[in-house]
Amino acid sequence: MKFYSKENLDFLLYSVHRTQALCKYDRFKNHSRENFEMILDAAASLAENHLRPILSEMDRNPPQVVNDRIKVHPNMKALMRKFGEDGWISMSAPEKFGGQGIPFTISQIAGFIFAAANYSSMAYPGLTTGAAQLIESFGSEALQKTFVPKMYAGEWQGTMALTEPEAGSSLSDLKTSARAHADGHYRISGQKIFISCGDHDACENIIHLMLARIEGAPAGTKGISLFVVPQKRLDENGQLVWNDVNTAGMFHKMGYHGAPIAHLMMGEKGGLSWLPGRRASQRAQLHVSDDE
Ligand SMILES: Cc1cc2nc3c(=O)[nH]c(=O)nc-3n(C[C@H](O)[C@H](O)[C@H](O)COP(=O)(O)OP(=O)(O)OC[C@H]3O[C@@H](n4cnc5c(N)ncnc54)[C@H](O)[C@@H]3O)c2cc1C
Question: Does residue 163's CB lie within 6 angstroms of at least one atom of ligand 1?
């Protein structure tokens, strides 16, 4: 079954971009071209044996909303665990986060092979990698500990929740707002549309990286902040409880039928959320609301 050209990929990787030259750097000294080839052969095997066979099925049987939650192809749950356990979600992450420190170029090519086999199925792990990397890079230690391992394991989905009904290209018009509370968290209210993998039953939890404006922040791009907003948060006993991030509907996108595209509403209580970034704690102190 041929869904991409290995010859073209090898030519681009090793003759045009000379990716093997990365191995002379300290950071990649434990890698080699042979290693890269082995990794990409394993990606091709996963794509051929697990992703490609369900491409038509996923396209013909798109996700459905059942009891206000989105149900996806039944294989996606086992596949997300496989993407996690076999290290595909965390492949470029540093070892301290359970990754293999593989060059980003190679992880992107693995993603390309998965996408060529079955684009929708690739969206789930691909979005999770991006979201986990952001928390890994800018989150506090507590955020990293809570979210990153579960995301790299394929147990929790990551998303990017940016678009709103009135704010697509004009993202600076977004209306979703965040109210700061004394203990450093925020409550988010508003709605988001077109959120890829924004709700589904293949993962236990969905972690949204969501754009919102802190109450009192300036209009336009300058006043926008990014929050970690879990669909379910951990309570004081370590149990997952609903975080008032609700599914209001679903969209189908051409060429992408197997991926669940959610319309999200943050309920009246407002989803509890956290602000990653070095200035997070200072900002929380600046915008503390007086009702808590
Ligand atoms: C496959 C897919 C996956 C997506 N996944 C996500 C996701 O995971 N998370 C998320 O937050 N969003 C997601 N989106 C939404 C995406 O970010 C928005 O669709 C995008 O920002 C454009 O916004 P819009 O659809 O409202 O179109 P609009 O902004 O309304 O644009 C419509 C048309 O008007 C044109 N236009 C807009 N502004 C101007 C201007 N000032 N001057 C001239 N022309 C203009 C545009 O070029 C376009 O042709 C996804 C979209 C797609 C297609």
Answer: yes
